[in-house]
């Protein structure tokens, strides 16, 4: 198969779809790989490393899309890429369709086969291709949140870990999934007091077992959320419904109950956000303020640490890339139920039910 890896053109997206090591695994199996010139440079991988691994270098994004049978990316295609995607081309990347109707309709119109990293799902409901980026984003949420709590950037002026004689900052984590646990781990490591909320008692018991005593758990409901937002300095939104929009756990009126300078980091923003006032931002312009509450809503947080993120992503995506390249998408998905759940759109048909529900688009069951 011919695989193309374009440069990511989303604002401040520095990751690349595959490492030179991943290219080597593909080429040694007889596949042809085309990498756009300098696609990996911001992740620490220069053109020569890809050439040494067996790849061919193309100058433009148009050339990569034109020649490839399968495109391997990191983030969803953006408007300039829509017309480059061809009928029957496989596009394997993060899509987050539920948060963007224009993207969804563009991919339907393209006739391509869209396989989304974020909906590849194990039997236990875990998301193997989302997990490493959720780990990165969860850890970064505390790193960025701590920064924006500083007064020069309009935060409350609180040091999360405190100092002797001064109480530590308080962190509220919404969701005890991968993002939430990684955020709680980082915040606890800094010495902050952490409260983590979830609707799953199984997850809360797990958190209670593995976390130190200054991480406390409570059941998630509106009453408890309203109670805690009044006293916590940093709020992390880490909820996820696979393939669907995130629920709005913090509404606009709740901002009035927070103290001025409270910081919200909405990691769920790429799925629509779990805060009503959230809107996607970029690393170039990451925050905005509403009712004196600082909102950090960068939709591609791991793009700020591209070396770590690219290696972590290739570690988990490469086995599936190899299956798709070796067998074609239909055979690969017919033989692998986990990968099959990643198929969202095929030849103009929406085959992932949650997407059809969000946009009221007809649902067509995947027939393989």
Description:
This protein is of the alpha/beta class. It has 2 domains: 2-126 and 305-359, NAD(P)-binding Rossmann-like Domain (Rossmann fold, 3-Layer(aba) Sandwich), CATH 3.40.50.720; 131-299, 3-Layer(aba) Sandwich (Rossmann fold). 34% of the residues lie in helices and 17% in strands. The chain has 13 helices and 15 strands. It has helices at 20-27, 47-52, 61-67, 79-82, 101-110, 131-148, 178-190, 201-210, 222-229, 306-327, 329-335, 337-340, 353-359; strands spanning 2-5, 32-36, 56-58, 70-72, 90-93, 113-116, 170-174, 193-198, 215-219, 234-237, 263-266, 287-290, 293-296, 343-346, 349-350. Strands 3-2-1-4-5-6-14-15 form an 8-stranded mixed sheet, with helices on both faces. The chain has a 7-stranded mixed sheet with strand order 9-8-7-10-11-13-12, with helices on both faces. The radius of gyration is 21 Å and the shape is globular. The mean pLDDT is 96. It comes from Dokdonia genika. Residues 4-137 form the Alanine dehydrogenase/pyridine nucleotide transhydrogenase N-terminal domain. It holds the Pfam family AlaDh_PNT_N. Belongs to the AlaDH/PNT family. This is Alanine dehydrogenase.
